[in-house]
Amino acid sequence: MAMQPRIITRGSVLHRVGQLVLFGAFALFFVRAGLEGDRTGLGLLTDAIILATAVTGLNLITGYTGQISIGHSAFFGIGAYTTAILVDRGWAHGWTFPIAAIVAFVIGCIVGLPALRLKGVYLALVTLGLAVAFPAILNYEKLADLTGGPLGIKNLTYLPPDWTPFDGRADLHLWLFWLSLGIFLLVSLIASNLLRSRVGRAMIAIRDNETAAAVMGVDRAAVKTVVFGLSAAMAGVAGSLFAIKLTLVEPAIAFFTIIGAITILVAMVVGGSASTWGPLVGALFYTYVNDWARTQGEERSIDGLAGVIFGVILILLARFAPFGVVGLLRKFRARFVRVVPKPPVALAGDLPSASAPAEANPSHASTT
Amino acid sequence: MKARRIAAIVAAGSLIVAACGDDDDDKTATTEGPTATTVAEEEEGTATTQAMEEEEGTATTEAMEEEEEGTATTEAMEEEEEETSTTEAMEEGGGAFAVDLSICDDPDAAAAPIEGAVRIGTSYPQSGGPAVLFAPFGDGMKAYIDYYNTTNGGINGEPIELISKDDQYAADITKTNVDGLVFDDGVHVVAGVIGTSNNSGIQADLNAQCIPQMWNATGSTAWGNVDEYPWTSGLLVPYAIEVEIFLQYAAEQFPDGGTLGLFYVENEFGQEYKIAIDERAAEYGFEVVAEETIGGTDSAAPSGQMTNLVAANPDAILAVPLGGQCIAFMTELGNAQAANADFDPIVYQTGTCASTLFYNAVTNGGNDGVITANQFKDVANVELQTSDADIAAYLEAFAASGSAADPSGLAAAGWVAGEATVQSIVDAAATGTLSRETIANAVRNADFKPSIVRDGLKFHMNATDGYAAEGAQLQAWSVADAGFVDVGEVVDFDGFLGVFTG
Amino acid sequence: MMLAFDSSLFIQRMVDGLGEGSIYAMLALSIVVVFRATGQLNFAQGEIGLFGAFIVSTLTLSDVPIALAILIAMVVGAVLAATIERVVIRPIEHRNPGAVVVASIGLFLGINQLHSMIWGPNARSLPSVFPNDADDFFRLFGAPVRWERFGIFLVLLVLLALLWVLFNKTKIGLAMRAVANNQESAGLAGIRVGGILMIGWGLAAAISVLAASLLAPQGGLSASLMFGPFLIASAAATLGGLDSPIGAVVGGLALGLIKAIIIGYVGFLGGDMVFTVSLMIILVVLLWRPGGLFGTVTVERV
User: Fold this and answer.
1) What is the pLDDT of residue C156?
2) Residue of C1, C43, C218 to mutate when probing chain B, most B C-beta within 10 A
């Protein structure tokens, strides 16, 4: 943290322009990808966007509020299963998304209740338990009428509706891409508006100093519970997208297990927790680096090589970019541009000055 | 024996009902099963000669010579798919099957002749937790493709290309991988993908793109869905058939019926066995008295489950553990038998465990007499390694591939997947036009015996038979011989499952 | 099916549960040791143990006696883990908890995959230190108790006693407590913080090597051996209290017993639901005592 921004002050207008350029570059990248319609690339990019949506959710509760969750695969799965169960019962795919969000929200609030009493590692371990228990619940035979048991639910293909410019099956990949991108933008918008609100201020206050937040009159129980719910809802919607893209749900699917929870958490930290761009950057990084690592293994026909490479990359990243890729980029940028006094985060740029700006304490957890 | 089999075939309807819950179609499909033979016979004359001539000098010729020996099934016909037009495809009744291109995204591409090298795409775990278990399959498949390219120079005058992707056993990655295989690498077929959910996730896409999704490396009954997913086919003996083979054997030991204990892993794999038992046990006079499960990642010894099995003391046990759980189950079995003199059930363990390494790892005698079924020759048998040319060829090629995996495990299935894939492509080429369409038809009308599949069994499919492998050899582990010993004759249920109508 | 309560069967189930729980307890101990010394969770804990078990396997194949092989592997594992702490974990800026978690997940992935790269994909068998033939058991009220499981249980008790002495009767134990509480002030008090952190990681690694080497004879040695047990052990440590060795042992044994009871008497739940039920119990315990059964409630620094 030797690189606190100072010396050169930038006007708000110029800052805004910078943000717009950054946002524009990203937008251009996605729009171009979507218009080009390169099928393979688009599939992987859609995977990354779906992951980014889930990470945005986790970032709210873990990054900004400081409540570590290693259980978001469960909310992801709850969203996926809600969509699957409803589609299986004849619902239109699109209408299952809000329902999935609501179901995940309610369950998220319930799961968030223990967070009122548990702290740090204990909360992390309880949510990890949730991630392990979740597939077993899906497997449970007494619930098989609902969940399909170990066989899951299949045939969830969501063909582009008539009002879209897409032409049936042939454009399915384009439709899924734009749908995922749209939902991701919506989720990001909700998240950034939330962070700008009173609740957002309360969240950060709880993370940075829970006792002080309580003294200041923050209703910790309400904030934690609601944010846990919202966070779960976002992961749930990501799960809905996942189910529809894969066309099936099954308890054994890696993303619904502890592996999914770890993926979401790692993508968040790797991107840069408690930062606006973190979820997207982290998800892109995770998806593409993992893909690259697999390619290395495939090309050399060495089983396990991909895991070793990816493991080493994570270790190096933790060492040299402890605040994620975004943190690293900020550090790099700080050599040239130093932004004061407002936090240099795009979109969430005007966090209230009363609380510490995101960059001042990017560690996602309160000290435990 | 014979009567029992006919009864079983007639009763097959109920099984399929269980699998898909759609009565009407099943019944018609099943009753049509037996007529398959006649129709196939009629077509024989035209197809065989032509196909045989064109295949001279290829690996197929020797395979075909051997396959007739000791063949139990009568319907073994060389009905190689000749230039079948779509009109012929409409003929029903177990005849030749032909895909209907009108449902394809791009029918012309599916029918277009394949120029140059044939590209096979596959996706299986090469890294991540489950890779240890499954990666040897890919090694075996690659070994066969290399072997074929070396000995036959490939197809179309060019070596066959095998493009393998790593999916870490995650269905979503499989899907992205297969997208890449199809659109970047331009593969003509996708073959030998591991995992039921992994295959389910790509099934709809590949069928719409009309790219053969052939020889899926799982025993799910879902791959026999000839009507809805004609481009999809399965490699392994369906788990439901394994259950049938087990029940038939158990009924021979207990003709007046008996009690049954189940031990299965709680995932889709284990569930398929459980469903089949629920449907079929009563048919053979067995009552399930104990049902024990184990979690998919549970690597602790299943002591509690074994205690329950001992308490229930069934006449027979069907065990479906996964990976290292195979060793743990047999070890606990040995301990339980030593401590409880009256606990001595017939134990059948899934063929997925039938690796000599797993059995050899059990040191307390719990493996002795455990029965399993295998459609493949016993490649770990030292005598056969010298006397059986196919096994010798496999072991030599597999060793040359540099894989460290145990050749008696999943690698053998991978070798067969490679061979079946190449065989289907060769069969398609024999029709005069090598295209994705003719390959799909060749798969759906498969009639050949991969080299290390047991004599007396073959891969056989047609319009009313959606499953290639429906037979196996029962075998028991013998501690004295440190290997498997055959039990009875090869059991063949060819045509038993009919088609899946999900 | 159970018409009358069968007491010998009940004892059998308790024996099953304690046998399985002993392994979880031992792994939970290693989690507690790392937590006590560093305040961190190490996701690679199980994999480091497995790495050691593979070394044991290699040694026994060269005819090294199994007990000696395990001791050698424990030392190797400890040195390896201490090095990892020094090279990988400690340089992480501010020991940022998020980055530490990512690093330990990276270690988990890397070491797990290294197994199959070094030792190949084939499952191996590992001999037991204890008599382990089919008839090596004694009867306790009619229920057979295997010497192998009984031996593991004894090892667990000895280990617990040693750790108790270490934590409560030695300077190192005191220093560990100081370091876990506050590294800066411990350093100011003259404690070699770096050394303590390395000892914590090394000791934990030795314990998990022991646990993996004792578990492997039951179901063979393969790269997937430790993932499931590690998750259960982390639940056990949570239940008992992350900074309490006795809590880890009680938690591990309790989870083993819960599993045995559910499998034995609550059959409709099935084997896979055991973890879900355990989680519920853990939740209830934590809501009652947020630091686990035997753990101390950490006072949040303000």
Assistant:
1) 97
2) C218
C-beta of residue A60 within 8 angstroms of C-beta of residue A203: yes
Picking from A136, A253, A293, the nearest residue to B171 by CB comes out as: A253
Task: Give the Cα separation of C252 and C250 in Å (integer).
Answer: 6
Q: Which residue shows structure tokens 């039938």?
A: B354
Tell me what the mean pLDDT of segment A304-321 comes to. Answer: 93
Identify the H or E element spanning A21. helix A12-36
User: What's the pLDDT score for residue A39?
Assistant: 73
B365 and chain C in contact, CB less than 8 A = yes
- pLDDT recorded at residue C191: 86
| Residue C288 to residues C16, C240, C281, C292, Cα–Cα distance (Å) | 29, 13, 11, 9
Which is more confident, B331 or A333?
Answer: B331
pLDDT single digits (tens) B130-152: 888 899 999 999 999 999 999 99
Contacts of C135 in chain B (CB under 8 A): 338-339
Kindly report the nearest CA distance between residue A300 and chain B, in angstroms: 11
Quote the pLDDT of residue B50: 41
Cβ pair B268:A252 closer than 8 A? yes
Closest CA to C150 of C127, C132, C126: C132
Record the tokens describing residue C39, joined without a space.
């305040």
Interface mutation target, options C125, C136, C261, C268, chain B, most CBs of B under 10 Å: C125
- pLDDT higher than 50, residue B197: yes
Q: Is B164 left (phi over 0), alpha (psi -120 to 50) or beta?
A: beta
Among A29-38, A84-93, C145-154, C229-238, the least confident range: A29-38
Run of H or E residues at C14: helix C7-38
Task: Identify the closest residue of chain B to C139 by CA–CA distance.
Answer: B339
What DSSP assignment string belongs to C66-99? HHHHHHHHHHHHHHHHHHHIIIIITTSGGG-HHH
Angle at C249 between CA C245 and CA C254, to 5 degrees: 145
In this structure, the strands spanning B258-265 and B232-234 are unpaired
CA distance A244 to A83: 8
In angstroms, the CA B139 to CA B388 distance is 22
ipTM of the complex as predicted: 0.92
**Which burial class, exposed, middle or buried, applies to C86 when counting CB atoms under 10 A from its CB (0-12, 13-18, 19+)?**
middle
Calculate the alpha carbon distances from B17 to B280, B465, C59 in Å.
12, 16, 54
Around Cβ C195, how many Cβ atoms within 10 Å? 14
| Cα dihedral sign, B204-B207-B210-B212 | positive
Backbone angles phi, psi at C128, to 5 degrees: -90, 150
Highest mean pLDDT among A319-323, B15-19, B346-350: B346-350
> Taking CA A116 as the corner, what is the angle to CA A112 and CA A117, rounded to the nearest 5 degrees?
125
Report d(CA B443, CA B424) in Å as an integer: 6
pLDDT in tens, B105-125: 889 999 999 989 999 999 999
**What 3-state DSSP class applies to A51?**
helix
pTM of whole model > 0.90?
A: no
Please say whether the dihedral angle defined by the alpha carbons of residues C272, C277, C283 and C288, taken in this order, is positive or negative.
negative
Task: Kindly list the residues from chain A whose CB atom is less than 8 angstroms away from the CB atom of residue B165.
Answer: 294, 298
Say what percent of chain A tops pLDDT 70: 88
Retrieve residue C117's tokens. 């790269």
Which of B60-64, B440-444, B496-500 ranks highest by mean pLDDT? B440-444
Give the pLDDT band (50/70/90) at residue B26.
Answer: very low
Residue B80, pLDDT above cutoff 60: no
DSSP assignment string, A101-161: HHHHHHHHHHHHGGGGT--HHHHHHHHHHHHHHHHHHHH-GGGHHHH-GGG-B-----PPP
With beta carbons less than 8 A apart as the criterion, state whether B237 and B351 touch.
yes
